[in-house]
């Protein structure tokens, strides 16, 4: 099955691009310390705003648009060049705005300058095209080599806090190089186009429509780190960022379905197969529930042992942050299944946009008092509240379109199995030693118990997985 193959490709890719910095995290925590990690987190959060405004929603729009017309080579050629050139212009404008911002800076100038290469790198990001034509293998294998080189470079050239600039440069340049390496593979799908035939700005408005929810999404994904850096300290921003990295790695497995399913559902919707799009939503929602619930409870259970082992005792402040933020694993998995995999490909952009705007508003309002009172822990609580608002709104937006009973079929089985796993792993966490072998044993036993309970409860998802492996 093409969708399953693409899911596995994309899951591998998403996990790998997050695991590369994750592998380096224990090392960097030791050589850069909380301050170095915090400076990188804070300055990068600022740069992300310039990247956001320069990208103007192209990743989502380009992915969907390519999926609509991928069977027409001529139209596909024109669409690619038009979207690519449009974003090239907007990225140039965004970098110009960064230059103005740079002249008003009073601290961290060298770090901002190194981070700014990431803005330029986004001008050459064409991964949206390959996702639209459902060719995920190219994106994976081209970037695999780049990421491995990045990993090696970090261990060779980053030895102390004084190498923080070098570390940021390695990350920024690897992003630029990785994006450029995708271009040779374009010739398989597109031909040449005359500049006079291109209508670059016809894509601006529809792209901007999808840009609005991306602004809101970025606000409640990055705003926490920015506000912590401004209101508390760069160290607090670093503590939250470390927790966020771990959660993102786990989320990559669940949300990988979104990138795969968007073009697939969009193509089915374009052909008028409305019942198929609903069926895909039911199956995807059940799947992400089945895998995200044990991930959420598992991370809660092992946080107190995992953090000191992974980050060192200097980062024990990350423990409560991670335990709270783990709740967003199930919430983002659900909102990804509903929003990215159903609302966007079926052109219900308004509902999707309103949901993420609501999440951004809740995040901003909750952040101020919660950060003042609880610091980075408060930012984690605000994150959970914002994701909860997004998910609830999107569920309401589905009324009249889906049967909620079908959507949440077998949810209680996943939840019950997850709770049992949580108590077992929590008990083992206190009973066993504080070492890696004990931690790995806890994780393996937790997974085993979760699967056994699903088998005993006869969860339908197991039958689906069995069919996939037999096909």
Strand tally is: 0
Mean pLDDT: 82
Percent range for helical residues? over 70%
Task: Report the β-strand fraction as a percent range.
Answer: under 5%
Alpha plus pi helix count: 20
Query: Per the principal axes of the C-alpha atoms, what is the gross shape?
Result: globular
Rg, Å, rounded: 22 Å
Span from first to last CA?
A: 8 Å
Main sheet makeup: none
Tally of individual domains:
2
Structural class: mainly alpha
Give the topology string: H per helix, E per strand.
Answer: HHHHHHHHHHHHHHHHHHHH
Low-confidence parts, pLDDT < 50 over ≥5 residues?
A: 466-471
Keywords: Cell membrane, Membrane, Transmembrane, Transmembrane helix
Subcellular location: Cell membrane
Membrane topology: Multi-pass membrane protein
Protein name: Flippase
Task: Give a brief rundown of this model.
82% of the residues lie in helices and 0% in strands.
Can you walk me through this structure?
- With 471 residues, this protein is mostly helical.
- The chain is built from 20 helices and no strands.
- The protein starts with a helix and ends with a helix.
- α1 packs parallel to α8 (136-157), α11 runs parallel beside α13 and α11 (234-270) packs parallel to α14 (328-343).
- It has two domains: 2-409, no CATH class; 410-471, no CATH class.
- It is found in: Cell membrane.
- Keywords: Cell membrane, Membrane, Transmembrane, Transmembrane helix.
- This is Flippase.
- Its main location: membrane.
Features:
single chain; 471 residues; mainly alpha; 2 domains; 20 helices; 82% helix; globular
